[in-house]
Each structure stands twice: as structure tokens, then as C-alpha cells.
Amino acid sequence: MPKPLVLAMLGLAAGGGCTGAATTANELDTTANPTGTCSELAVQNLAPSLMWRGTVFTVVMENRSQRDILGNKQAPFINSLADQNAVAAGYTDNFVHPSEPNYISMVAGQNFGILDDAAPIDHHLAAHSHIADQLEMQGLSWKAYMESMRAPCGLTSKYPYEPKHNPFVYFDDINGWDGTAFHPEARCNAHVVDYSELDRDLAAGTVPTYAFITPNMVNDMHDGSVAQGDAWLARELPKILGSDAFNHGGVLFLTWDEGAGNSDDPPMIVISPNARRGYVSHAAYNASSYLKTVQKILGLQALPCAPAGQAVVETMDELFDVPTDPSAT
Questions:
Q1: Beta strand pairing status for 46-47 and 327-328?
Q2: Could you tell me which of 38, 2, 118, 26 has the C-alpha nearest to residue 308?
Q3: Residue 189 Cα distances to 175, 194, 217, 266, angstroms
Q4: Which pLDDT score is estimated for 97?
Q5: What distance in Å separates the CA atoms of residue 218 and residue 283, rounded to the nearest whole number?
Q6: How remote is the C-alpha of 23 from its chain's centroid?
Q7: Which of 39, 99, 170, 240 is the most exposed place for a label (fewest CB within 10 A)?
């Protein structure tokens, strides 16, 4: 039986198999995170097991290393979650900076050669093998909830919202780029929404199967302090942790996009009724491990856009006390 969570504190061309490409004028060194080809998606005859019929939530904070968060008295709420759930202490980012390539890797498995924080107008990713495409191919629902974005599908900076922390708006098949203009009304407006919609979806019981959440630039600790970010999480996460979408076989991955400064060890806390309580893993995991774990839980094809040259990617199964394997249908 899953355990109730107790809070101690409140680039493919259509039909092809090529890489998505960034269209910036500057060609940057990508040896730190080599790009690779994407395989064509195929429908999987798998479904989440009975233990994983809730929502996969991801909340991404900014630019802190494990030493900045774990054990820090300025982050009491986060540490209460870490103590009661599972921590991936061997987790690293993809050894690439700044933010944008790390976010894109979290939803596609690679950064497509992007090594800057430029806007979607500067990077047009033609890939059709990212997680949103996978979810829709399997008939599963998804939304990205972006704090302070206000209007849906924010393609330009409107501080404290920044598109560099919103990976979905870079894919042409989501933003509707036709070579001249964006057409977000076709898909993006329905799926990439302001964070305020999460409260409505929780209240109505319409939270999607996959929910990717980005706080604004202050609340995610990028421009705000650790204490400010902890206070935001203490206010917002209990809404999720009290929901049926979470408690009936759900999981919340609380992580940071990259480590601070030259460090590459952002925190990764896995919060779930199925998490191993108080467990600390020292296995070597990264953003590809996170994505592959999400895909496995949801019964999706594993890493169709895996970066070339990367060693075998392990899923983070040891952080849970129930199997993550999906069921054949």
C-alpha cells in the first residue's frame, strides 16, 4: 500500500529521424553535452502500473547546489520534504550552463546544441520526439504551468517570467512556427499556461497526467533568496501534495536546473507516496535519468532524443519502494 505523505511543515522533420537544430548565428562548443539524433516515435503498448495512476509533477527551481539547500536552516520546508522522501545525492546537471539547455534536456534528453538563454525567435527546434509529443501520442494529457507568464505560451520576456525557463516554447510543433511567424493558438495556448491555472485544475480535478511547473525569477531562487524560494514552496506545494492527483499514485520531482557557479550538483528530491522515506541515493544520475524515469513511470518510449556518446542512462528506481515498470496492455 502506498504511504500517505505527512508534511512536517506547512529536431525531427515530419516523418524523419534527424536532429532538431538551433538557428543561432554563433556555433558554440557542445562537447560538454553532445547532441545526437532523435528516433522516430512509436506508440507503446504500455500503461502506468496501478501504483502509478496519478500525475507526474515536476517543479524546477534555479541555480543552487546541494550544499546551498540540504541542511540549510533557511530552507526548512524543503528539508522537511527531503527528510520524509528520497534524495538523489549523486544527481548532477548535464555539465552545461546556462539555464536554457538544461531545461530543454529535461523534456527532450538533449540540448540540440543550445548553449545560451536566447528567446524562441532565435532557436527553432524541429524535433518531434520530446515528451509532449510522446504524451499526446499515447493519449495522455500534459500542461506546463509558468508563474507570472499571464497570457498563455509566453514567447518573449515579461519579467519576472522568462521563456528561457520554459522549454516547451522552443519546439516548432508546439509554438506553431511556420518559418515566418508563430502560431501558438494551434497547440501552445492550450498546454503552456499561466501558473494560476493550476489552482483551477486542482479544484476541478482536471490536473493532467504530466505537469511541469516553473516559478517566476524571484520565487525560483534565481533572483530571490533561498528563504524566499522555500517560502513559495511551503505555500504552493501543499496544494499539490493534498490532491488526489498526487496521493493516488503520483510523484513530484523537486529539482534545480543547475548547480551554483561552477558546481554541477543541483538538489533532486523525489516526493511521492511511493518514495523510500528518508532514503539518500549516491548513484550517478542526471537530467537524462530524471527524464527516463518519468518516461518509464508513464509507459513512454525511453529517451528517443538521447545525447550521443552518453553512457547507459539508469532510471532512478531505487528512490521508490514500489516498481516503476509499466504494465503491458
A1: antiparallel
A2: 38
A3: 8, 10, 21, 31
A4: 85
A5: 31
A6: 24
A7: 39
The sign of the CA dihedral 146, 150, 152, 157 is: negative
User: What's the first-to-final CA gap in the chain, in angstroms?
Assistant: 23
Residue 114: alpha-carbon gap to chain centroid: 17
**Helix or strand run (H / E) with residue 240:** helix 226-241
pLDDT at site 209: 98
Q: The cell 548535464 sits on which residue?
A: 94
pLDDT at 26: 28
Distance CA 307, CA 289 (A): 12
User: Residue 148: pLDDT above 70?
Assistant: yes
Strand partners, 143: 211
Domain boundaries, the chain: 47-311
Cα(162)–Cα(119) distance, rounded to whole angstroms? 9
The answer for residues whose C-beta is within 8 angstroms of residue 251's C-beta and 6 or more apart is: 52, 54, 56, 57, 270, 271, 272, 274, 275, 297
Q: Strand order in 268-271's β-sheet?
A: 192-194, 142-146, 210-214, 56-61, 251-256, 268-271, 86-88, 279-281
Alpha-carbon gap, residue 95 to 262, rounded angstroms: 9
Q: Where are the beta strands (DSSP E) in 68-195?
A: 86-88, 142-146, 192-194
Distance CA 171, CA 25 (A): 18
**CA atoms 169, 138, 252, 143: torsion sign:** positive
Average pLDDT over residues 269-280: 98
CB contact at 8 A, 304 and 110:
no
Dihedral, CA atoms, 28, 31, 32, 36, nearest 10 degrees? 100
pLDDT at 16: 32
Hey, what CATH class is 47-311 in?
A: alpha beta
